[in-house]
Amino acid sequence: WPDTTDDHTLLWLLNHIRLGIPELIVQVRHHKHTRVYAFFVTATYESLLRGADEIGLRKPVKAEFGGGMRSFSCEEDYIYENIENELYFFTSQERQNIIRYWLENLRAKQGESLHNIHFLEGQPIIPELAARGVIQQVFPLHEQRILKRLMKSWVQAVCEAQPLDEICDYFGVKIAMYFAWLGFYTSAMVYPAVFGSILYTFTESDQTSQDICCVVFAIFNVIWSTLFLEEWKRRGAEFAYKWGTLDTPAESIEEPRPQFRGIKRISPVTSAEEFYYPPWKRLLFQCLVSLPVCLACLSFVFLLMLGCFQLQEFVLSIQELPRIIRFLPKIVLAVIVTTCDEVYKKIAYWLNDMGAW
């Protein structure tokens, strides 16, 4: 929580969590150095099992019951591997995912409000409070025991395969899939690197020989990139099957992002109260604001680039200048590009938020 949070806000949400999500255990702690309050949230093993059932968490099945992966069911919990082991049945990422599901499932009742925040009926409370800045951060705590093990087997390991299963158990499938792709890509780059080095070594200095080698290397890259993509499709499918995400059903209708704003209305589809933003207003903003701002930013960068090129030519035309001064235009261009990158990033966030309301 921010250090300016009042007691009424803390007690309001604490009461809602304890009444609305009895599966969670909440501890309130005060950090005397930062002077902020924090809610430490956990759950019992039985609550985690019920949460896994609700979200359809896929878990491995014992061999005598057919093996493979299946959505968890409390009614048939005996068929799953390691169900008797409370410590190791759920991975760190799975426990975090279930608790996050419980937290985001806390919904407001009709006419409910906190200070100047008025909730819609059925609207998730915690994402809205986080988007409004009432809640400063929602994040899982690290497990030092697992981190130390990953530090030895992953970060400090040299010339060893990545412990992808351990990464998946701790950080989740998305992170593990990214590092699986990164490792596969790094290994695959060895082939064009070796082939290119051989071509470079045996290429003659004449133009004809260099042109032939360039064509050969280009053909090799086309073949390599095709094989790389096809092999990664197979490898990625293997990981997805192994980690239980290959045949995951499509997500149901997602909740509107908490930053979305608009006028309240009754949905003609669900007959529930919702925020609505007219499409013509969004289109008007894109044409009158987004497009001119983007064109202005592009024009500004283009003019700056031309100015730096002109400065480069002017500096090079003066022979008396020290050699280090000749690098000044490039340094100026690098500084300008870095500065513009930060400024344009903020502009892009603002346009994205405003244009998508």
From TrEMBL:
Source organism superkingdom: Eukaryota
InterPro entries in alphabetical order: Anoctamin, Anoctamin_TM
Main localization, broad class: membrane
GO MF term set: chloride channel activity
Subcellular location(s) per record: Membrane
Anoctamin transmembrane domain boundaries: 167-354
TM ranges: 178-200, 212-229, 283-309
Keywords: Membrane, Transmembrane, Transmembrane helix
Topology versus the membrane: Multi-pass membrane protein
One CC-aspect GO term: plasma membrane
PANTHER family documented for this protein: ANOCTAMIN, ANOCTAMIN-8
Family from the record: Belongs to the anoctamin family.
Name listed for the protein in its UniProt record: Anoctamin
Organism: Burhinus bistriatus
Gene name for this UniProt entry: Ano8_1
